[in-house]
Write a structure and sequence with these properties.
The strands form three sheets. A seven-stranded mixed beta sheet has the order 1-2-3-4-5-6-7. A five-stranded mixed beta sheet has the order 8-9-10-13-14. It contains ten helices and 14 strands. The protein is globular. α8 crosses α9 and α8 packs across α10. The longest helix is centred in the last third of the chain and has 25 residues. It is an alpha/beta fold and about 300 residues long.
Length: about 300
């Protein structure tokens, strides 16, 4: 089974996407088995069955709640299928996400338009019964503390349970490497607002925790240190992309590639990019470029 035990009460369930090259050890769901049993992010529809089988193999017939950090397809696209297979439970998300989970047609159409083949590989969304959907801002059952952390998405929420902080993509994307190091990058697609993301990172830094769990991918006991590094990384990207923009006489793809080259050369938190497997590099190049687009649009709006 695609399960890693991180703590006695914490399990990471890998939701690899066989039809997408490089999408192994990238999308995951968290299972917390403490005083309550909670699932954080269920992944896309394509792997809802894998997630259910993994959870049941750990002796859980039905969790107490499903907590969604945000409603992008790779985190929440399988919510309706998961509920159908696993049984009814509260589905917790930001209030802005509730209507889209109850009637996902617009979210699905927008996702296909933006992500194209990737969205199709994730699979279409099944609606969630509206009576099960709960606003994270007012949800405090099972010892859950919801923390609004907009930035990666305006409807992004992190969750603290005991000493574990499930940060989704509020603290970036962090890949633990076999040599003990890590690769850390922003997750700042358009529309991106730097000040909003920095305020959310301050919440991550100021929320006491022992274990920080990422949406992509894995966990760390150095959560505060890495969140601090990521805060500095966002500020570095702003300066580096601003300089690349000033140096490049053109916009569009040429400017995008100039920004990417500057960041890969100068951002120490991206230093491991060249040693990643080729399929993972291709995946990361796509997301790096999309994050750069977020910064470029932010700079344009600020100008």
């Amino acid at each position: 089974m695609p399960i890693s035990q991180i703590l006695p009460e914490l399990f990471l369930i890998r939701l690899d996407q066989p039809s997408l090259s490089g999408f192994s050890n990238f999308i995951g769901s968290w299972l917390y088995k403490g005083k309550s049993t909670l699932v954080v992010d269920c992944g896309p529809a394509s792997t809802a069955g894998v997630l259910v089988d993994a959870i049941k193999s750990l002796g859980v017939e039905r969790p107490d709640a499903l907590l969604l950090t945000h409603i992008h397809l790779d985190h929440a696209g399988g919510a309706g299928d998961f509920i159908k297979k696993m049984g009814e439970m509260p589905v917790v998300c930001h209030e802005k996400g509730i209507p889209h989970l109850a009637e996902p047609s617009r979210l699905w159409e927008g996702s296909v338009k933006t992500l194209k083949e990737t969205a199709l590989a994730y699979g279409p969304m099944t609606p969630v019964d509206a009576t099960l959907l709960k606003d994270a801002a007012s949800f405090a059952d099972f010892g859950v503390k919801a923390i609004p952390t907009p930035g990666h998405a305006p409807h992004h929420v992190s969750y603290k349970v005991d000493d574990i902080l499930f940060a989704g993509e509020a603290a970036g994307v962090c890949l633990n490497l076999p040599d003990g190091g890590f690769y850390l990058r922003p997750a700042t697609p358009p529309r991106f607002f730097l000040e909003t993301s920095l305020k959310s990172l301050e919440k991550v830094l100021n929320t006491p925790h022992k274990m920080l769990c990422y949406g992509h991918f894995g966990a760390t006991l150095q959560g505060k240190e890495r969140a601090g590094l990521h805060k500095g990384q966002l500020e570095f990207w702003l300066d580096a992309i601003s300089l690349a923009k000033d140096d490049c006489s053109r916009n569009g793809q040429e400017l995008l590639q100039a920004c990417l080259a500057r960041l890969l050369e100068n951002d120490p938190l991206l230093a491991a990019f060249g040693s990643l497997p080729s399929a993972v590099r291709a995946r990361e190049k796509f997301f790096l470029e999309n994050s750069i687009r977020g910064f470029l649009e932010y700079l344009e709006s600020r100008a």
